[in-house]
Amino acid sequence: MATIGIFGANGRMGRALITVAKEQQLNLTAATVRAGSELIGVDAGELAGVGKCDVALKQTNQNSVSLADVWVDFTMPEPMLAHLELAVTAKKAMVIGVTGLTDAQYAKVQQASQHIPIVWAPNMSVGVNLLLHLVQTAAKVMGQTADIEIIEAHHRFKKDAPSGTAMAIGTSIAKALDRNLADVAVYGREGFTGEREQQTIGFATVRGGDIIGDHTALFADLGERLEITHKASSRNTFAQGALRAAQWLQNKPAGLYTMQQVLGLADLS
Ligand SMILES: NC(=O)C1=CN([C@@H]2O[C@H](COP(=O)(O)OP(=O)(O)OC[C@H]3O[C@@H](n4cnc5c(N)ncnc54)[C@H](OP(=O)(O)O)[C@@H]3O)[C@@H](O)[C@H]2O)C=CC1
Ligand SMILES: O=C(O)C1=N[C@H](C(=O)O)C[C@H](O)C1
Asked: How far is residue 185's CA from residue 188's CA, in Å, rounded to a whole number?
């Protein structure tokens, strides 16, 4: 069983990861927080509210990174890239769930994957990864005439928009229709917009309260519409996926892997 480390242990996902690692009796050997944090020395399980797990929170640095084989990162783009440098130096694998990366930031993840094995995925749930296939079938059947809109809703604390998952849904649909997402994406509408252009793929973002993560792909034609929806009701679902990816990554060669590969969905048509 791989030894697992968690960067950003105090985040919403950091705490969910500690919770699931304890529930599943995984080999959690390290959990870190940012330099100078008052939480250094606190037990990770107590931080997550699940009782002691005998892992004291450490400051993120090269020493603490040596304490686990596979590191899981759900922080933010800039700190994640700093963590990635530590992991490359220490030759440790990484599971990355951070969204809102610029193209340049994603390119750095790609470069790092020449040196260490990495899973990056904007959504680690089984349901969303299945949905990425279902929307391709819908797009092939309805996409030439139906209007396609992707609607996502998240909690008030989320910093990036549209969500990484919404972007992945858009990318899947565009690929199935042989369209380039950058050419056809419309991010929100305001004012006298004129009639909808049929080839476009629209995105709508809702932010409010404690919504964990809802995504709908809408195929709206004249006379009927199809909606394919996923609703996450617990962050533990994402944590379970990430920890499954961490086990899967153990002893893999350097490379950039997807959640589709982890879940065995990569070959679904
Ligand atoms: N792929 C997936 O399945 C999922 C992806 N996500 C993505 O995961 C990311 C995190 O989400 P969430 O847990 O809600 O976010 P939180 O804001 O709750 O957690 C962010 C974490 O990053 C740390 N952090 C932020 N800035 C810095 C910094 N400059 N230096 C060091 N540490 C820093 C925070 O530390 P501190 O506590 O000290 O502020 C905190 O631990 C987002 O990108 C989100 O979209 C979320 C859920 C599922
Ligand atoms: O920030 C979140 O919370 C989530 N972010 C991911 C995204 O941007 O797609 C995944 C999930 O929906 C929760």
From this structure: 10
Tell me: the pLDDT tens digits for 155-208?
A: 999 999 999 999 999 999 999 999 999 999 999 999 999 999 999 999 999 999
Same-domain pairing of 34 and 131: no
User: Is residue 269, in this structure, part of any structural domain at all?
Assistant: no
Give the range of the structural domain holding residue 68, as residue numbers without chain letter: 3-120+235-263
pTM of the full predicted structure?
0.98
Cite the DSSP H helix spans in 118-265: 126-142, 164-176, 181-184, 235-249, 259-263
Block residue for tokens 């944590």: 239
| Total domain count, the chain | 2
User: Do 179 and 141 reside in the same domain of the chain?
Assistant: yes
Does residue 244 sit in the same domain as residue 169?
no
Q: Is the CB of 154 under 6 A from ligand 2?
A: yes
Give the ligand with the smallest distance to the CA of 212: 2
Tens-digit pLDDT profile for residues 66-109:
999 999 999 999 999 999 999 999 999 999 999 999 999 999 99
Question: Do 135 and 205 share a domain, yes or no?
Answer: yes
- Report ipTM (2 d.p.): 0.99
Q: How confident is the model at residue 63 (pLDDT cuts 50, 70, 90)?
A: very high
Query: 265 C-alpha to center of ligand 1: Å?
Result: 27
- Pick out the residues of the known binding site for NAD(+): 8-13, 97-99, 121-124
CA separation for the pair 59, 37 (Å, rounded) = 8
